[in-house]
Design a protein that fits this description.
The chain is mainly α. It is about 50% helix and about 5% strand. The radius of gyration is 19 Å and the shape is globular.
Amino acid sequence: MKHEANSGMFARIRATIRKIPRGKVATYGDVAYAAGFPGAARQVVWVLHGAGGLLPWQRVVGAGGRILLPGVKGAEQRFLLQSEGVAFIGLRVDMKLHRHAWPRFRKEPKPQRTQRTRRKAR
């Protein structure tokens, strides 16, 4: 049961990662939120780890634009991002220039209470 729930979640996370355009980046938390799972940044890591290079993994970075991968993989991620035109300030991606702007999620407006419903509530 848990595996089935995760597969739907993971599919949405994969689809969200694929939407990050060339030359832009998103944080693990941004991806989780945009996929509809706020607070699930760790699951984004699991999806990327299990993708076998089939996703644009280099476009997902840590909070503040940090590359979190150690050693050679971190250097490869920086190289791939720079080849896409992503600028760095020291060891971090310039998030002001390259952070992907996800479409805003619109919450349904709350129904306004009328005089009639206010009287019933009392």
